[in-house]
Amino acid sequence: MLAAERKLRIVEYVRQSRVATVAALAREFGVHEATIRRDLGEIEQEGLLKRTHGGVIVEQWTHDEPPFIERSNQRLEQKMRIGKMAASMVEDGEHIIIDSGTTTLHIAKNLVHRSNITVVTNDMNIAAELKDASGIKVIVTGGELYPSSYMLNGMFTDHVLRSLHVEKAFMGIPAIHPKHGLMHPEAQLVTAKQGMIQAAQEIIVVADDSKIGKLSLHSVAPNSSIHSLITGKEVQEYDIKEFRDSGVNVIMV
């Protein structure tokens, strides 16, 4: 088998299984591991696959977000664990931002009995969750309402965020990549997230395991802007190693 043909078949093989070790590929194609490593290096340079320690994975893209109702039922138990952990990082007396999202909603659910906290949000679901929480002051950013998700966004949202300063921002994101950082498929939603990041002293990203390692069209912020990433224990070690190596505090729950 010619090298060019073998590389094409390696890409097909990994795309089907998503991840493969060097040893497994060497057995599959009947060549030495050194040959596979050389092939993988060339394939990675072409941007088709991503090398990991001892193997390779296929990089996956997020092209759009499913409707809120659909997303809210996906990985629900994991999102509940993430939300509980994130809420435990909020100190009494703090001003925080809670970004719109199905995972961030579970942060609010775990704050309802807390006191002396100010929550800024662009999510009507989160505001409604906290409406009867007597110890929490809620500030809604305003903006254009997205009926499918009850999110507020746009010029008014951006204007309010530019005027705020908070201790922590809890960010939801559909894609977070170890090299390219926070990413989003929808351009019109990027500026509000950037405004939240600029308004906060500490950035905490909450993302279930399906978001980790994903690519998307628009860059929101580099990983250097993130202090902590809270994700589920279901995440694979190869998906989070580079985040840890770059200084991000990765918390698996």
How much is the radius of gyration in Å?
20 Å
What is the overall silhouette? Answer: elongated
Helix content: 25-40%
Low-confidence stretches: none
What string gives the helices and strands in order? HEHHEEHHEHEHEEEHEEEHEEEHE
Report strand %. 15-25%
What structural class is derived from the secondary structure elements? alpha/beta
Q: What strand line-up does the widest sheet have?
A: 6-5-4-9-12-14-15
Number of helices: 10
Instruction: Tally the beta strands.
Output: 15
Termini gap: 45 Å
Average predicted local confidence, pLDDT:
93
Report on the biggest sheet: 7 strands, parallel
Present the secondary structure layout.
Layout: H1 3-17, E1 19-21, H2 22-29, H3 33-45, E2 50-52, E3 55-57, H4 68-72, H5 76-88, E4 95-98, H6 104-109, E5 117-121, H7 124-129, E6 136-140, E7 144-146, E8 151-153, H8 155-162, E9 166-172, E10 175-177, E11 181-184, H9 190-199, E12 200-206, E13 218-221, E14 228-231, H10 237-245, E15 249-252
Parallel strand pairs: 4-5, 4-9, 5-6, 9-12, 12-14, 14-15
Antiparallel strand pairs: 1-3, 2-3, 7-8, 10-11, 11-13
Helix pairs in contact: 2-3, 8-9
Give me some keywords for this one:
single chain; alpha/beta; 253 residues; 3-stranded antiparallel β-sheet; 15 strands
Structure overview:
- Helices cover 37% and strands 25% of the residues.
- It has 10 helices and 15 strands.
- The longest helix is centred in the first third of the chain and has 15 residues, at 3-17.
- With 253 residues, the protein is α/β, with parallel strands linked by helices.
- Strand 4 (95-98), helix 6 and strand 5 form a beta-alpha-beta unit.
- The strands form 4 sheets. The chain has a 7-stranded parallel β-sheet with strand order 6-5-4-9-12-14-15. Strands 1-3-2 form a 3-stranded antiparallel β-sheet. Strands 10-11-13 form a 3-stranded antiparallel β-sheet, covered by helices on one side.
